[in-house]
From TrEMBL:
Name recorded for this polypeptide: Cyclin Pch1
Keyword annotations: Cyclin
Domain Cyclin-like: 47-146, 166-277
Family (UniProt): Belongs to the cyclin family.
Domain of life: Eukaryota
SUPFAM superfamilies named among the record's database cross-references: Cyclin-like (SSF47954)
Length: 325
């Protein structure tokens, strides 16, 4: 299925997708790190990105790209050789460049030293601690570039989810689409701690976030939209039935998530369950409990999808440009 929403990709993207069996056979796990501990260290590395973001003020795309770099890096390198914190800082530094939002290395080193309590060293770029950490950061970044084979193209599910939501709910339902987009965005950001980017295409991850958002908002997840010809006929009928002097409604066609994202229900089900299951790693017990309560709603939404027929779709491809935020 060819999606209507597309983002620029690289011909090497396929090398970064793994099976579940391969995911539990990473270099770290082969060297004795348990699966649970490996997942925890991945999550700690991603949470480190959020702490870097606060003082350095970068867009969400930088954090998402850096998280992807971390997950890809640890599929080829061991945590026993590279500390997750050093890898996180290097991924952040590299993502700032690849997302065209560079930050001076001096600012990053200073921020890291400040958070570790080395205030004097952070304020003096000629101090031994500052110089040593700067060298470590450069060395880790170089290692990451080699490990990633200089493939720095990362497609973001965040913008796909937002664009899809605004086309799945239009007209008088536009406000619903805005609410769904905001909640889906939060699910996507929370899920960065998980290696979902190694299992699923960004379109699948975006679709999963939309389903979870609908479940949280108690909004039915649409099975599929009517065909464009049927929607046009209904709109023409509404115009004919409009009272004299009454402004007829604008024609704003609704699109379905399948045609927008090119995702099948089976793919969506696995990704949605994985995304929700990731909250078991939440540091806040309340968040984990809230996710557990959401589980029955998600399963019901998936069951409803399995019963729904797939109508024919028609339309043209639409390229998506990621807006600045």
């Amino acid at each position: 299925m060819t999606p209507l929403l597309t983002l620029p990709t690289s011909h090497t993207e396929l090398q970064w997708y793994y099976t579940r069996e391969e995911l539990v056979d990473s270099p770290s796990i082969r060297e004795g790190v348990t699966v649970a501990e490996e997942r925890k260290q991945r999550a700690r590395a991603v949470r480190r990105l959020w702490k870097l973001r606060d003082p350095l003020t970068v867009r969400q795309s930088v954090i998402s790209t850096a998280a992807t770099f971390i997950h890809r890096f640890f599929m080829r390198e061991s945590m026993k050789k590279w500390h997750y914190d050093d890898v996180a800082v290097a991924a952040f530094f590299l993502a700032c460049k690849s997302e065209e939002e560079p930050r001076p290395i001096k600012s990053i080193v200073s921020s890291v030293l400040q958070r570790s309590g080395q205030l004097e060293a952070a304020a003096n770029s000629q101090s031994p601690a500052f110089i040593d950490y700067r060298k470590k950061l450069v060395a880790t970044e170089e290692a990451m570039l080699r490990t990633l084979c200089y493939d720095l193209t990362v497609r973001q599910p965040h913008w796909l989810a937002v664009k899809a939501a605004t086309q799945m709910w239009t007209g008088v339902q536009a406000e619903v689409g805005t609410k769904v987009a905001k909640v889906a965005w939060n699910f996507l950001t929370d899920s960065l701690v998980q290696p979902l980017c190694l299992l699923y295409r960004p379109e699948v991850i975006a679709a999963a976030s939309l389903l979870l958002a609908c479940a949280q908002l108690d909004i039915p997840f649409p099975a599929e939209a009517p065909s464009l010809s049927e929607q046009k006929s209904l709109h023409d009928l509404a115009i004919q039935e409009a009272e004299e002097g009454e402004e007829p409604p604008a024609y704003e066609p609704v699109r379905g998530w399948k045609e927008l994202l090119g995702v099948e229900a089976s793919e969506l089900a696995d990704a949605a369950r994985d995304m929700l299951g990731g909250y078991k790693l939440a540091e806040d017990d309340f968040v984990a409990a809230e996710a557990a309560q959401l589980h029955p709603k998600v399963e019901q939404a998936l069951a409803n999808l399995a019963k729904s027929p797939s109508p024919a779709v028609d339309g043209e491809r639409m390229d998506v440009d990621s807006p600045a935020s």
